[in-house]
Amino acid sequence: MMYEMITSKFSKKFWGILLSLLLAIGMGGGYLLNSTNAYAVDVGTNPTPKVDIAVNVPADYPGTFEDFKDDMTNALKKQGMNPDDFRITSTMTSIDTTNLDGWYVYDHYYSQASYNNLRTSDGQSLSAEQKKRQPFRQADTSYDQSGKTKEEVSIKEALVDKKYG
After folding, report:
1. What are the angstrom distances between the C-alpha of 154 and each of 62, 161, 162?
2. Do residues 106 and 73 lie in contact, with contact meaning Cβ atoms separated by under 8 Å?
3. d(Cα 89, Cα 47) in Å, to the nearest integer?
4. pLDDT at site 123
5. Full-model pTM
6. Which label site among 41, 52, 117, 159 has the fewest CB atoms less than 10 Å from its CB?
7. What are the angstrom distances between the C-alpha of 81 and each of 50, 51, 69, 89?
8. How confident is the model at residue 163 (pLDDT cuts 50, 70, 90)?
9. How far apart, in whole angstroms, are the C-alpha atoms of residue 138 and residue 108?
10. CA distance between the termini of the chain
């Protein structure tokens, strides 16, 4: 009996209309219900400061980052910007290479001789531990600049020589 009630034409139309109305209200019910209320959505606060300026000191600038920052701050103040509304940070990075423990440098060498000629920054040969961390890897020199293998190039040259030579 329940199945007959659910499958009757009337109940199908009723459920179709009800679900359509619920979907319409859920998707844009404010317009359908003629709602004039505004709803606030919290998307977070504005960043403080309002303007974040990341700079790197130009190579030809005679001073330090702090000098550059002071000059830029004064220039922005002269243009009417409040110093509380901006922040100037440096993008400069530095890598300390005095201790290379844990560094793994992957490279490929054209020959065993070029690998054996590697030197540390103080001119010493690589230690056994450094060679363990950075082993010799032969570069693949079987391709020329066009991307063809040297074998393909030499076969083509041989055929050209045979045909025209």
Report:
1. 57, 10, 12
2. no
3. 15
4. 78
5. 0.34
6. 41
7. 11, 10, 14, 17
8. low
9. 6
10. 97
**pLDDT, tens digit, 9 for 90 and up, residues 94-107:** 777 777 666 655 56
- Residue 5 CB contacts under 8 Å (≥ 6 apart), including other chains: 11
Residue with tokens 């007959």: 4
Q: Which residue has the tokens 């066009």?
A: 146
What DSSP line would sit under the chain, residue for residue?
-HHHHHHSHHHHHHHHHHHHHHHHHHHHHHHHTT----------PPPSSSEEEEE---TT-SS-HHHHHHHHHHHHHHTT--GGGEEEEE-------S--TT------BS-HHHHHT-B-TTSPBPPHHHHHHS---B---SB-TTS-BHHHHHHHHHHHHHHH-
User: At residue 145, what is the residue type?
Assistant: Q
